[in-house]
Amino acid sequence: MSPQTNAGRNNVLPIFFLLGCLSMPGWVSAAPATASIDTIAGRQIESLTIRNPDANVSVVFENGLRATVAGWDKVIESLAPEASIFAYNRPGYGNSQETGTARDGGTIVEELRQTLKQKGLAPPYILVGHSLGGLYMQLFAKRYPQEVSGLVLVDPLLPGVVKKSDEFPFWARGAKRLFFSSTVNKEIDAIHQTSEQVLSLAPIDDKPIVMLINKPKDATAVGVDFGAFNKDQKTREFVSRLYPKAKRIIVDSDHQVQRQNPAEVVDAIRSIIAKPAPGE
Question: Is residue 266 within 8 Å of residue 76, measured between CB atoms?
């Protein structure tokens, strides 16, 4: 479920990062066999690149927290015949080498652009981000709007929803340090900073944006808060005003929409591929 949905539901919040990841071992699975490992900026990066000479855009995927490129396998399989595709594991995930650089969104966006350049994938890009990866893609689009044709945000994290990590309950901070890798801890600790980076930049309301928001119909679905979220009325109202022109699609799914409902993600991406470029 996205923060946008959270604005209207006070009693249920999703397990979309942090401690809830412990109950989802399938998140951290191996990358597809066709992935390659390249040395970029002195470190090894694992990625999957599909070049389609007939495509006029490249679809770029960004994973959520603790997730790997394998989570997009069904989506990529469907899109491969009709689009150029790039999916990768951030440093410290899968077979991508850990890095000592900061793990805020600004650093991650610059590393991604450097990787795309080295792989020979020129803009324009359709950016597809899941959960925390959705926050990174929002920043990419705001920093480099001239390089972006549109965004598909899959149950995304929106800026301002997550507290500073030092404001988490003490038990959540302890569990985070105990159970998660150094890379994951750094990314969580930088979420507030990344949110500030996103909010400091101009709106991107001229871009086509599709937001897929999970809302499971199963009556037994129970959300967990972990004390990491801002749930005050001011935050709810602020979040509800973000991306006013975005198309919002409610999906009967858990947070892993790309796994449970890959067709919805594929359709959202295709809807942006089909849009004519400005001036056409």
Answer: no
Helix (H, G, I), strand (E, B) or coil at 88: strand
Buried b (16+ CB within 10 A) or exposed e, 54-89: ebebbbbbbbbbbbbbbbbbbbbebbeeebbbbbbb
Token pair of 184 as six digits: 């994951």
**CA dihedral sign, ordered 259, 261, 265, 270:** positive
Give the ranges where the chain is alpha helix by DSSP (H). 3-6, 73-79, 105-118, 132-143, 170-179, 182-189, 191-199, 233-240, 257-260, 262-273
- Residue 216 has what pLDDT? 87
pLDDT in tens, 25-57: 333 333 343 789 999 988 899 999 999 988 888
How do beta strands 43-50 and 247-251 pair? unpaired
> b/e map of 124-144 (b: 16 or more CB within 10 Å)?
ebbbbbbbbbbbbbbbbbbbe
pTM: predicted TM-score of the whole model, two decimal places: 0.87
